[in-house]
Amino acid sequence: MIVRFEVNGKPIEAQVEPRTTLADCLRHDLKLTGTHVGCEHGVCGACTVIVDGAAVRSCLMLAVQADGAKVVTVEGLSSDEQLTPLQAAFRKHHALQCGFCTPGILTTIHALLTEEPEADEARIRDVLSGNLCRCTGYIPIVEAALEARASYGHQPSHGDRA
Amino acid sequence: MKPPRFEYARPKTLAEAVGLLVSAEGEAKVIAGGQSLLPILAFRLAAPALLVDLRDVPDLAQIEITTDAIRLGAKVRWRDIEKDERLRSAHPLLVAAIEHVAHYQIRNRGTVGGSVAHADPAAEMPGIAVTCDAQIMVAGQAGTRSIPAADFFLGALTTALEPDEIVVGVQFPAWPSARRWGFEEFARRRGDFAMAAIALYYDEDGAGRATNAHIGVIGACKRPHRLAGAEDALNGRTVDASAIAAVASAAAAEVDPPGDMHASADYRRALVATLIERALQRAAARPGERGRV
Amino acid sequence: MNVNSYVGSPIERIEDLRFLRGQGKYVDDLSREGLLHAAILRSSFAHGRIRSIDTAAALASPGVQAVITASDIGRPVPRIPLRQEPLPDLKRFEQPVIAEAKVRYVGEPIAVVLAESAAAAEDALELIDLDVESLPVVAGRDASGDGNVFLFEEHRTNLATSLTAVRGDADAAFNRAPYVRRERFRMHRHTGVPMETRGILAEWDAARGRLTVSGAAKVAFPNRRILAKQLGLPEDAIELVENDVGGGFGVRGEFYPEDFLIPFAAMQTGRPVKWVEDRREHLIATNHARDVECELEIACTRDGEILALRGQAYADLGAYVRTVGATPARNVAQVMSGPYKIPNIRIAVSLVLTNKTPVGTYRGPGRFEADFFRERLLDMAAHDLGIDRVEFRRRNLVSEAEMPYPLATVAELGIETSCDSGNYELTLDRCLAEIGWSEKSALQGKLIEGRYHGLGIGCYIEGGASGPKENARLVLEADGSVSVFVGSSAVGQGLETVFAQIAADALEMPMDRIAGVFHGSTSHVREGFGSYSSRSVVMGGSAITVAAANLRKAICAAAAKRLSVLPDEVKIVDGKAVAAGGASVFLADLARDGVSAEGSFASNKRTYSYGAHAAHVAVDPKTGHVELVDYVAVEDVGRIINPLTLHGQAIGAIVQGLGGVFLEHLIYDENGQLLTGSLADYLLPTACDYPNIRAVTLELRPSPNNPLGAKGAGEGGIIPVAGVIANAVAAALKPLGVEPRELPLSPPRVWQLIEETRRSNER
Fold this sequence. Notes:
Chain A is 30% helix and 14% strand. By secondary structure, chain A is an alpha+beta fold. In chain A, helix 2 runs antiparallel to helix 5. In chain C, strand 22, helix 16 and strand 23 form a beta-alpha-beta unit. In chain C, helix 11 runs parallel beside helix 12. At the A-C interface, helix 2, helix 3, helix 4 and helix 5 of A face helix 1 and helix 19 of C.
């Protein structure tokens, strides 16, 4: 089947089987290998991308279901010139080690903070509970996300840690 | 863990969807969010010949609140329930339960209809539907029908759906604002399926005693069901410490929990008693105070 | 930033720049023209005799190009040799690269399907007609000794070997001791589970007789040696390439069956072949770990001086002895004493085969287990003797004056090792202060709002810097920058940055003049040794330091030639080589002459990071849930290269340890079937589980064993976790008389323990 959707602002077309997941379509048909596959059964979150503004597990979505949608991957949240504030916060706080879970966490945090720049630590942890990381122990990731809020319009207040 | 091969159809109307199920003669599966179905396909635990995607079928995604009922369309997502401010007062027990479902990314796609059709005994939606005497609205070749939730969930991952039928909605009776309720769940980690959960509510008579008790068990059972013995132990009583103990004890005796690699039946039974106690303690606290873990 | 001060600075990582942009290159990101995808048929029987394999239907399946079984490889199929401790006893039980006559664990490879897509290959697996006569299953250690069922009939035993760690005369000490206590403990099976599963891409250039294999990690050079022998190729005909690696933790990178099968498939088909492990496979095919029982006894004087430790442990190895052989079991025996001075020791470990996935090394192998056994027993003994738990430990810590302090010797392996340097009391005291031990003591065993509170503390050592050696090569590039090539392997620990810091300081050049750090692949250095046992900074870093000194000499020599002066008269300043008289040449210029240098660091003296951890827990007796209210780790690593990455290692390792204590469990049934076959059942820690962890990393006592003064620090964070938590839970539940002796401390198991204790108290 032919699917047509938009990825990182560009229209694409791919020839896929109905059973091809969005994750595999992005990685192998569109060569966007930034999105990683960690479990293929919807637990680890490494494959998270943003579809029509919502963070979703791309291993739990068929490519054909993305027909007509606007998809954003980690590549779409990056620029070659410099790191975005979210990426810089991750680097500053050492919020990644092997980097494998990182794209899924960046897209998740980006989607969350875009919609909820006032998200507090509890909310951030709650949302992050759907992304597994085996290297960092999560603490630096939460710190990075808290710091990144400012660039999404968060108004600093007395109770803020970061 | 690539899914087995299947054909894919994206009907434009409900009638078309039903027609596809009919022609597939039991070899088709309906997909909406796919959050339960895709892992099943990844593990090759099912090999349907055809997937019927409800994506473009209209009128299934509304949350309708009237004086008599709260009706959730089958394609209503967990995220939609979370974001609908009206539901916080229209059905606080539903909202409290749904907070425990899965994770952020899954909540953006997972649907009411999907959860109901999948019928995992440890899932929140089927448990709330049964506890609250909801109706499951279903459409098939013979037309639409409404099945009481208690009759819809037959066993683990087994429902009363015929092969040509699609869940189109879940309808809850209206919720009086003075009603007392509690929801307590115990899971290994945030977002995991419940090892056990208790959903309950009761109204109060003129003397402040419990009436119309509805107590439902999730997870410590093969299918969600109300606990009649526990309800009887509660009805007509003032909800004090001794009443709570009696209800907890009745519930523990009544449930028939499974034992598995994660927990023994005895543990789940004890958990039920603890969760009943905690749910009732919260319910008996001031009205308007949310029953939250 | 001044030169010569990168080491010790919290420099942000270089590798982050590509990881954050989704531009890492992990093996599944690689693609080739004409690529074939491999899928592996794995045994669903735990123990059986293969009667027949019919691949005809699979071969006819759409997209399938070939199916490989043992017959195609030639019998006897190659075996995977031991990389460490190749005792003759253990060699008997090496694994064949594919099942031949028997299958011995669920997950053992039986056939390889090559197809045009991964999905097509997987479709064909279901069409392979396999006839297996099932045999009785040796489901666990108890069954292994039953006498009738052998995994290897020809050897008539399931006991692979025994090892004993000895010092002094334990029996004599026990005979005269005024106090002894014996307990039995059990550490369950769990393992590393990195977020990236394994993967291999193999390419065979028949014309040039060259094999290139991507997906390497940890120990590429030893693996190349093994593969060359198995394939009958010269070593230099094979290149193993390390790209980006999604976590190792010890389980990735050892030589597995697929490390032969996929290159073999590429040679057979003449096309590049890629295999990517799926998560379900990973849980049954990648090394398991831990799974040790131990009966341990302690002998003390009445005022709490430890006289002896004696014990018998059983390590469940699974169905084969893997490349790391007896390492975890050896550590259980040898490191049982930890940082404590124990004059008499005899710890025996039996290495036992069962019909389960084979076991390998996972972060702190054998050390995590030993610490749990020992620290639990220390708390019990302290209580019996009426001595404060902290004082009991303090009294028995090895003192600084006694360093180097030898651990017990493992006779069968002839391995001796000594604690190099340290003041163990300093880290204990710092830990007590950080957690607020005295202030919180009032909470011990108290029931507050329905939960029992307790504190636990433990001291530990981390053996790092395994020898024998590491090599590095530095090359002056055409733009005057320096490329660093090293045999160490990067698995996420930040080597590209840490090594650039070390190189820049040693070269006395700005860090941005380090063009890159190239690690792991066999093309980078002549001989490499790899990353395991917390050795990279010490061994790789020291090799880089040596190579840097050699490069400076080479630069000066090349400049001296150009400028017609003596090498002594040349200084390197600001990208130039400057002679005493003022004449100079740009380094970029000199590079034309091909300036490079190698360096090696060899040592068989391990380093020992050390420290103390403490925990405050609150236990809900009704649900069995344990909340980690506070957790503090204090570690002395000798020399901190990058405090940012070091701290990351500590936190990450602690959380892995907590997962091992509370959540993770590889559960088998009596038929040898793995029940926890997905991440829905094998539970990993999430962001909500352990938010309250603090790590303090110190550099108090450098190691005398290497030029950096560093000590390996990747595993320290995990080692004491189980002992500390179990002791905290025991302290909390003291009013109920509950003594945890087994892990995991999942809510149902804690509840069960409380119930059983209550029932036995009532009797």
